[in-house]
Every structure is written in structure tokens, then in C-alpha cells.
Amino acid sequence: xxxxxxxxxxxxxxxxxxxxxxxxxxxxxxxxxxxxxxxxxxxxxxxxxxxxxxxxxxxxxxxxxxxxxxxxxxxxxxxxxxxxxxxxxxxxxxxxxxxxxxxxxxxxxxxxxxxxxxxxxxxxxxxxxxxxxxxxxxxxxxxxxxxxxxxxxxxxxxxxxxxxxxxxxxxxxxxxxxxxxxxxxxxxxxxxxxxxxxxxxxxxxxxxxxxxxxxxxxxxxxxxxxxxxxxxxxxxxxxxxxxxxxxxxxxxxxxxxxxxxxxxxxxxxxxxxxxxxxxxxxxxxxxxxxxxxxxxxxxxxxxxxxxxxxxxxxxxxxxxxxxxxxxxxxxxxxxxxxxxxxxxxxxxxxxxxxxxxxxxxxxxxxxxxxxxxxxxxx
Length: 378
What we know:
Layout: E1 5-11, H1 16-27, E2 34-40, H2 45-56, E3 61-66, E4 69-71, E5 74-76, E6 80-86, E7 90-98, H3 104-117, E8 131-137, H4 144-152, E9 159-164, E10 176-178, E11 181-183, E12 186-194, E13 198-203, E14 206-219, E15 224-228, E16 231-232, H5 233-240, H6 250-255, E17 258-262, E18 265-269, E19 271-274, E20 280-282, E21 291-297, H7 300-315, E22 320-326, H8 327-336, H9 339-348, E23 351-356, E24 359-361, E25 364-366, E26 370-375
Parallel strand pairs: 2-3, 8-9, 22-23
Antiparallel strand pairs: 1-6, 2-6, 3-10, 4-5, 4-23, 7-12, 8-12, 9-24, 10-11, 13-26, 14-15, 14-21, 15-16, 15-20, 17-18, 17-21, 19-20, 22-26, 24-25
Helix pairs in contact: 1-2, 3-4
């Protein structure tokens, strides 16, 4: 096994040139194969892109805008953070692809080309035992379900995690960085082949209740649910949680998400807002006929610690975790006064990541979830 060199860094400087210089000083290393950064969306993005490109040149540097940054110091807001990887035993393939229009066949072809580009090792192609996929995607394009379906179907068991770029809860414009500039309406796929042990994982601090509902009218393309159990969606949801429709606030949606059962596991589907016609807009696509269960929360701190305890049992203490944490989770940590505790768990486990507008795990697009790839060998 070859040594994996990992460098991590953060800048809280608001000047984009100074921030880029500080990040470069922290994470630059010879022969790096992949560098990843996350930045607050209120930076002057063209200036930041120019400064990063001037410092890093043509190395494989990728990144996105966030709704909060997970740094070596824990959770921050308004920062620039990132990491770099270098090792003779590391191969990386990266591709930027358009979302509008989204071409599933062209995306599948590109995934296969990336896999071929990783080449053979010991006479074997890339596989689930030595390769993982890391996805960054425009968080406002509403294309995640189509994307992960197309990509994961071509990965032959290789696990995928990812996050949807964000913009500090403004929901105006989110950006992906590649090739020296920021882009919109794109996806960025990274395939990483390594001889280090790694594990993909996810966790959510919700369990299903006995309150179930059937979506009877919906438009998956716009993520709008019009009817639940044959009644106006917002009014029926309010009844099920024991409230009047006027009581449906973002806090209620954050603390009463719904979950869907897929393959024996439950995945969170969060509600974004009530619309004037009493429909509900979700953060994920919802199909007609699907059965949803209202969930209840458990201790987020204990749940996250348990997830990392399981990572330790699998691969030991991670050298690095690529982490994607839902913006709704970050907001809950602030509301409940546990942000420092969550941030300390992240710091203790070498997590570098960001608060997202949605998370991806293999073929699923989910909400209110932490998804990660932990790289062991520490």
C-alpha cells in the first residue's frame, strides 16, 4: 500500500485573492491528483475563480458554493476550505457534464469513459473494492434523481456519494467550479481509485412513525405534491401532525420530515414549503402512488457519533472524510444549540465538506442526511 498524502486547509479571509492564497498555501503539494474546495456563495465568485486558477494552474481542482463549510475547525460560515490528495496509488477521473438539457445516454457514456480512463491495476479494471464516486451538482437544477439513476446504473457496484451545491439558503443561484471557473446547471463527477481502505456511509437522525400517507396527485418534475390521501396536500399533512395549515413552518418541516422505504431502508424526503393552492413543494421528486411515513427525530449528536463509531470499526480512524451534510441539519444544530458538538465530531474524524441542498447516496437523492466517504489507513 502506497502512502496517501492529504493536506487540509481553511481561509476565513473575505478578500478572494487572499483567501485563495491561504488555501493554496495550506493544501498545495507536489504531484497532487485531486484538490477539492467549498466556498461561501457570497464571495466574488469570478474574482475567486481567477485567483484560484492563478494559484493552482491546471491541476485537477474542483469545488462548489455552500450553505456552510465543514472545516478542520468544525462548522463555519463564510469561509473557503478544502483538501488535496497525492499518492502513487491514486488515480482520479473527473468530468463536467451539462444538466440542461440532461442527456442520460451521454452521461452514461461519459461514466464508462472515466472508468476506462482509470486503467487496469494488477490486470484488473476499476471496481467497487478500490474505487468510489464523488458527485457535485447544481442544487437548484432539480435534476438529481435523473443524474444519480443514470450514473449509478453504470458504476457496476462502485459506491457513490455526493452533495447539491448551495448558496447560503438564498435559493438564487448555486455554482460548481471546474477548469478555472464557476458553472451553473452542471454536474461534476469524480471517480477515485485508491489502494487505501475506504467506506461509503450515510446517517439520518429520524425513525419512522405509524403515520402513513399516500401521494395521490403530484408533479415529480417540479417536486410538487398536490394531494395526499385524496385531500389537499398541505391540509392533510397538517392534520396528520396535529396542526392547522397556518402552523406549517420551516421548523415543522425540519422536525417532521417524511421517509420512503426503498429496498428495506428508509430515506428522508423533506418538505420545502406550502404553496398558495395548499400543495407542498419537496426538496426531492415525489411520484404519485408512493407511500410516505411521517418521521420523528432522535438525538442527532448520538446518531452521528454512532455512525462514525461504525466507520472506525470498519476501517479505523479515517485520514479524511468527504462529507455532505444537509442544510436542514445545519439549521437544526443552530436551533438546538448543538452546532459545536456536531462540529467537534466532524473535526475529530477529519471531515472536510459542506452544507448542501440535497445529498446523494448510490442511486438515491435524499434530504436531512449526512453522506460521506471515509478514507482509512491512518
